[in-house]
Design goal:
Blueprint: E1 3-8, E2 11-16, H1 21-27, E3 73-74, H2 79-93, H3 110-117, E4 141-143, H4 153-161, E5 167-170, E6 177-180, H5 196-200, E7 206-208, E8 221-226, E9 235-241, E10 244-250, H6 261-266, H7 268-271, E11 278-282, E12 285-289, H8 291-294, H9 298-311
Bound molecules: iron/sulfur cluster (3 copies).
Length: 312
């Protein structure tokens, strides 16, 4: 494969042809902010946070979709770039709820992090606010579209990784929002509650309902683990607070990030099988079911029982 050498912030770097400027910068350990980018997903280059300055190019190009070229010179934090990023953050905050104090994602939110890093305290532009009802229709995911920044990562992960296509962009202009077909609640959609959308959401628009109120990011220790509920062996992290497991989260860096409801629910068995109810959707309604049924283990349990009886 042919190689390309370019200079980023005064440092030379050689990368395979076809790489993006963002790939090359990350190889050098340079941090470029992103909101809609995810290495596992297609790249719309939509949020513009990853813009850089490249002499000879008319505008500030999005580094996640700009291919490298031999001899290219890139500045990731020039004055023009920093000013443009500040404006993007201001525009996002212009109609964003001021809820960092109680938001579940506080401390783990990219919008909050970038506002801090770029010193965006005052929002010069004040926009109209959405008044969307929070979707609490199911036991697994809280959807607050008032906090959504329309990065589209949830749409892409649902379609490209999970293959479910449950959600998409709906309406236009200011009314654009992410919604299941016919803008129903999630409980009325074909969602399988894999929570992949929750794991890629950069802000507090999607929250794992079972983790809500259980602790701030910095209070929770993460322990990598491989799920043994089926042969797929998905990687995820056990979330522990004060030595007690309080939740599970998809391992961001691991291949095979998809994590099914079975792995997520298995957690409830750790402390007390009767502590929290398991739910399954039957005839369009969530109903409480035995854990064996929720985990799809009924067949296995029956077989084990049968084997045991034969052996006697
Ligand atoms: S989504 Fe982020 S910026 Fe918005 S309220 Fe929550 S923590 Fe704050
Ligand atoms: S939980 Fe899974 S299936 Fe449901 S919307 Fe999110 S990614 Fe799609
Ligand atoms: S819900 Fe989250 S992941 Fe989906 S578009 Fe909004 S901000 Fe992005």
């Amino acid at each position: 494969m042919s190689q390309v050498t370019l200079t980023i912030n005064g440092q030379k770097v050689t990368v395979p042809a076809g790489s993006t400027v963002l790939d090359a910068a990350r190889l050098l350990g340079l941090e470029i902010p992103t909101l809609c980018y995810d290495p596992m997903l297609s790249k719309p280059g939509a949020c513009r946070m990853c813009i850089v300055e490249i002499p000879g190019m008319r505008n500030l190009p999005a580094s996640c979709v700009t291919p490298v070229a031999e001899g290219m010179v890139v500045e990731t934090h020039s004055e023009a770039v920093v000013e443009a990023r500040k404006t993007i953050i201001e525009l996002l905050l212009a109609n964003h709820p001021n809820d960092c104090l109680t938001c579940e994602r506080s401390g783990d939110c990219k919008l909050q992090q970038y506002a801090y890093e770029y010193g965006v305290r005052e929002v010069g532009i004040q926009g109209e606010f959405h008044q969307y009802e929070i979707d609490e229709s199911n036991p697994y995911i809280l959807r607050d579209m008032n906090k959504c920044i329309l990065c589209g990562k949830c749409v892409r992960v649902c379609a490209e990784i999970k293959g479910e296509n449950v959600i998409d962009f709906a309406y236009r202009g200011f009314n654009t929002k992410i919604a299941p077909a016919l803008d129903t609640k999630l409980a009325e959609s074909a969602c399988v509650y894999c929570n992949n959308c929750v794991s890629v959401c950069p802000v507090g628009a999607l929250v794992d309902r079972r983790l809500a109120g259980k602790g701030r990011t910095w209070e929770v220790e993460q322990e990598p683990i491989i799920c043994t509920f089926c042969e797929a062996g998905c990687n995820f992290n056990l979330l522990k607070k004060d030595g007690k497991v309080v939740g599970v989260a998809a391992a961001k860096a691991a291949p095979g990030r998809p994590m099914c409801l079975k792995g997520r629910l298995g957690l409830e068995l750790i402390h007390n099988p009767n502590a929290a109810p398991a739910y399954l959707k039957k005839d369009g309604e969530f109903v409480e079911v035995p854990w064996a049924e929720a985990l799809g283990l009924e067949g296995i349990l029956a077989k084990l029982l049968e084997k045991g009886q034969k052996a006697e």
